[in-house]
Specification:
Layout: H1 2-12, H2 19-42, H3 44-65, H4 75-88, H5 95-125, H6 129-157
Helix pairs in contact: 2-3, 2-6, 4-5
């Protein structure tokens, strides 16, 4: 379902392929961040379904961006992949392959660390922590847009 949304947007314009799905995720996280405390007593199923949808959307985006090499919403899968890669370090002798493994291990450890950091923030702030997550996504979109504009401007003047 989520990849269908990304593919549909990519058919219209490649430039904004991730903007629409990321905007939906931002909207969900902001909504739950601001209204979650009230919803949790009245209808917790709305929170669960909304966050599961956002998690699936985020996972499909990362899967698409990383060409299916990383899935960020499954902590057990991340630990499994990390364990496999750590064991491969004992068997690969080529420098290029080891560098690739170190890069992948660093990425997985970073993602796992942010899971735990997010859990600590949640324990302290509750659902309000989702506002921080949505702002991080928004900053990512703004950064990506600025980077694209600078790239296009650079191409325009260097032609």
């Amino acid at each position: 379902m989520f990849l269908i949304l990304v593919e549909f947007v990519s058919r219209k314009t490649e430039r904004y392929i991730y903007v629409f799905p990321t905007s939906i995720e931002i909207l969900i996280l902001l909504t739950i961040g601001f209204f979650g405390e009230k919803l949790i007593t009245e209808n917790p199923n709305i929170i669960a379904c909304s966050l599961l949808f956002a998690m699936g959307l985020q996972n499909s985006l990362v899967t698409k961006i990383a060409n299916a090499t990383v899935r960020t919403t499954h902590l057990t899968g991340l630990f499994t992949d990390l364990g496999i890669e750590l064991s491969q370090l004992f068997f690969y002798k080529e420098i290029v392959m080891k560098k690739k493994l170190y890069s992948s291990i660093k990425l997985r450890v970073t993602i796992i660390s942010f899971f735990f950091i997010g859990g600590i923030f949640y324990a302290k702030n509750g659902l309000k922590v989702l506002i921080i997550s949505s702002l991080a996504l928004l900053l990512g979109l703004l950064y990506d847009n600025l980077k694209l504009k600078l790239l296009l401007l650079n191409r325009k003047f260097n032609v």
